[in-house]
Write a structure and sequence with these properties.
Chain lengths: 240, 152, 87
Amino acid sequence: MEVTLLIQAADESFRLLENARGQAVELLNTAVKLTSDTRSVEERKLQAFLSSGQDAKSAFQNFVATFVMLFAFWALLSGKFDLFHLSLGFICTFIISYLSHDLLFANVRIGDIRVIVQRFIIYMPWLMYQIVTANLHVAYLALSPKMPIDPQVMKFKTKLESDISWVTLANSITLTPGTITMDIEDGEFIVHALSQKVADDLDTGEMEDRVAHVFMEADHIYIQDVLDVARIFGEMRRAA
Amino acid sequence: MIFRKDDIIVNTISRILIPFIQLYALYVIMHGHYSPGGGFQGGVILGASMVLLLLTRGYDEARYKFPEQIATLLSSVGVLIYAGIGLLCLFVLGNFLDYGKLAALLHVAPAHARSLGILGVEIGVGFAVMSVMYSIFLDISTGGILPEDEEE
Amino acid sequence: MNGFLLTVGLILCFLVFLVLYRVVFGPGVFNRIAAISAVGTKTLIILLIMGYLYNRVEMFVDISMVYALLNFIGCIAAAKYLEMGKE
């Protein structure tokens, strides 16, 4: 008698669990469909905004930006500012910016460039200070008789997004004596460090924060994540 | 055959540096009078920038940007400019490559005409050297075997 | 100033000879390539010091920049060739 009751109770509980599992799977599917729907709608809007005649316009913007930068470089190199040499410079810069205007800037936004250049000029003295201190440490390591080095390879992921900031971080790491960037694989840096102190200096992530500040990145990601998750929570609460 | 490799650091730095290298090469050509440089040196630097393009972008994309036929054409155009200026001096009843006689055509003083004549000759030499450097590198790296020949 | 720069130039020349040891005896070709690159960077500074000592810095700056570019391109070309394994 009790066995039958027990079996019935177990059956009932299994059915309830099955129902709960079905409901949870349905909720998850709804959430996934909603996020993918909104994302595809947003992507379509972005696509329509970007491709509305942006190609010719962005090519022209790239051309003008390349032209200005190259002409400033020419004026810096050649100290003669008479009409003949300036017109020669104009022709040469025009030919080069016409032939390779897609090489220098991928997508240029004029207001951003000024801020980035300004912040980059402020970043350089800090980098030189780091180079000097690391140089003294490596010189001490190399010149002491028992040479207490401890070579290690470390991997870490960064929060930077664009190509140029990756390359700036890799170059800053390589310029600082004691660390060399070996490779960048799918957004993961592989760095070889000479001793534990230099590796610890790199682990604090201060250089990465400063490079992110220079290129104005990694300061809007968290808001976007919160917005995505808030939509899912709202839908689940409404479905329940 | 050089294939494009997905190496972020080298590709990005080459992408940024190539216009500056080319501008520096043209600066060296144009200022041959006042500082070390001239036609041949500028042509070598231009050729080196094309070689950098080939190394980092791979064979197909470099061939799309700067095909071999245009390289051959440009080398002949360079020699044409050089010999053409010489012949032009012949037509104005001077000797071959006697730039002073060009002053009558350009309405400037003879010394200035000589300076302009040498500048033109240097530009021709620059074109020729650039295309020959690029052609030699392409020839050595592909072994003279083009993909069209391999497909047969 | 001239004496100071002359001393610095001579010390750099001595350091170049130290690096040449790696070029000659480096086991394998990668050591030799890295050592040639290091020699290239020291050559730049020695050229600039020579330019300052001859009082014509602007001329030697041109030459140093050319050598810097060619050093970079040469290092990349050698690395690409070695990566492909002689094909």
